User: Fold this.
Amino acid sequence: MIKILIVDDDIGICKILQDFFEFKGYETCIASKGKEALDLAKKEKPHLVFLDIGLPDISGMEVLREIKKSDPTVKVIMITAYDEEERIKEAEKNGASDYVVKPFSLEYLNEITLRKVYKQLFEDLRTEHQELTNTYGQIVFTLARTLEEKDPYTKGHSERVSQYSLDIANELGLSENEKTIVSHAALLHNIGNMSLDDDILNKKHEFTNEEKEVVKKHCIVGYEILQILDNFQEHALIIRHHHERIDGNGYPDNKKGEEIPFLSRILTIADAYDAMTSKRPYREKISSPIEAVNELIKNKGIQFEPELVNAFINVLAKKQIIIKENIQ
Assistant:
């Protein structure tokens, strides 16, 4: 609820404004002196202040300066008995959002002045939300990097998967936006691993069945971390489904074929290839590049999208990582 502080040396005006705004559903408090207003502003933390310029103890202009110094986000509407251009300019310079000249109608306050203040409040909230979103996004990427720094066996894994995913997207001629999304999602695809105990994350032996079920939850945890961010909605879905299989036997939702987001299907191939060609705590790398490619081909239409496997093979051949003639 929006809270309003009303400050005027005429207590009658204070009461009229208080009754009017409380009828409209606002929470209000009133003061007839400057010091009292500053104390209330500090205690009640109002969103909006109606402030008379002429007060008996401290000038309204001084009260305005102190309120804005204490909390720059508070909106202040100055009340004056005269349409004095210089004083109005001074008030605006000190942070006043608007002014009204006595006498004024209550409906004018409601329809004109408050509408302007609402717009300012909305812009503040939108800016604050964007700053929080940007900060949260930066934190997420930092956490992903920190997670890999903790685990020497997977260090560099997300960067490689991101590059492979981007290479596939380029090979397919996807849009710049799709390329950015899939490369960023790949960087964050294991962010859900932060929920895993170090004992599991760095285990030097095969996982037990129970531990495998715990590890599988990293897709959902990653999704939950990212889906609260407006700018990461698509990334969240890609990460949730990057362990699904074309035949529907993947996890966490047993989606199959085109039910799986297209960019998730790209990430699945990039992730699987790097997993096969990289060392793990419990094993050496199990495949050379050509052996990993043969495994991808073997699982076309079962685990992997055939068209995307073909695109990735073209990528590896162009980079001279494999020679197509050696594919079985």
